[in-house]
Amino acid sequence: MDRKWVKFGALLLALWLMAMVAIGTSYRTIESSQLQVEELRHSIDSLRSTFVYDAPYRAKMADRQALDLQLIYALRLQIDAYYQKSWLMPDLNQLLFSTDRFIEKVQAYLDNELAVQTLAKRIHETRDRYAGSTALANQYFQLSANVFEAMYLSEKANAEIFRNVDRIYQQSTELRTPQKEELQKVLVDVSQVLSSYAQGSYLVEKLISHDVTNQIVLLETEYRETLNRHVLTGITLTLFAMFGYLSLLYLAQSSAALESLQEDIRLYPPEDEKVVAKYDQPTEPESIPQISFDTMLGSLNGDVESVCMLLEVFVSDHKNDVAEITRLLTESPEEAQRKAHSLKGVGGNLGASQLREVATQVELAIGHDITKVSDLLKDLQVCLDTAIEEAQTFLNQQNDAKG
Predict the structure, then answer these.
(1) Contact between 340 and 325 (Cβ < 8 Å)
(2) With 50 as the cut, is the pLDDT of residue 282 above it?
(3) Mean pLDDT of the chain
């Protein structure tokens, strides 16, 4: 093979390899980001599943919820970092925004839960210090009961609970200064915690119905489509590369054949009429039979009726093709070219190699050098007339044989 074809082949291989490496690298990056998004969905679903329990059970899960929230935040940062590295990924801005809002709501919920736990612990410790004072200890017991009732009774009981808190505040004004200040600080904390905790049910409902999971599901679908496009692109480029190699092989063989032909002509003197006739004498279209009936019968497993049917369609549909091509040359060259292409295919089906060859030349001439079409159409008309005459003769013979 000529060295230039080897160079073309090497260039084509290099381009294909670079494209496949780029596609493979992008595929792995996007797949890694997809796995991170899926892991984020699993973590969010795991955290959200803890919110369906009643408040007493949720209170015992606060530590686990805080750890899950830290994991979700770490995954969010990791996804953002990967997103900045590849512009081929789906748009993650909406997901990052929704995840941030989800994290904020969870953090607000946990702050309320932890504030309640801290308050309960403080009341317990303060009450223990005043165990010797029955009246003061009772006030702290009442506060504990009021906090408990505010958390787990219906909202209708809240008004009575806050009236009890106000009553305890009025009683604190009669205490000595150290005890009064300490109890009033606890009362302030109770009011703040209960006010914040009243939003807890609202936060839980918002977290359970949050749309971040739906956005992740849509993103996962987009990820799969993007990865599928990568695969299809790789397959398409591979097919193009294979077609390019086959084309290079064909061109290389054609080039070698042409060089061999030129070498033969150079070796034989022009006076040798046989050699001149071999390479330079055109074959008259009417001197060669057009239709190969043996080829048609062989391709149709000897079915004479099918051959006759094809010949009848050929005679009826294509007898005026040359006239149609001539007319369409000025009206619509594209239609004329398609007409010649159709006739080329028909010639192949009939085994009429010369008809097919001349139709091919007409098709190419219409597209590249229309000045040659006129002479080619004359040859095409001769080939077509001969083919129709042969087809009609064959049909008449078969009709006579049946009669």
Answers:
(1) yes
(2) no
(3) 78
Average pLDDT over residues 219-225: 89
Q: Which of 150, 176, 202 is the last residue of a domain?
A: 202
Residue 365 lies in a domain: yes
Q: Is residue 102 packed enough to be buried (19+ CB in 10 Å), middle (13-18) or exposed (0-12)?
A: buried
Do 324 and 331 form a contact (C-beta atoms < 8 A)?
no
Helix H or strand E segment including 24: helix 3-49
pLDDT (average), residues 91-107: 89
Q: Please indicate, yes or no, if residue 166 is contained in any of the structural domains.
A: yes
Range of the domain at 332: 292-402
Q: How far is CA 102 from CA 36, 97, 224, 289, in A?
A: 17, 9, 25, 83
Structural domains of the chain, count: 2
Q: Which one-letter amino acid corresponds to residue 398?
A: Q
Query: How distant is the alpha carbon of residue 85 from its chain centre?
Result: 19
Is the pTM for the entire model greater than 0.85?
no
- What pLDDT, on a 0 to 100 scale, did the predictor assign at position 272? 38
Asked whether residue 136 is assigned to any structural domain, the reply reads yes
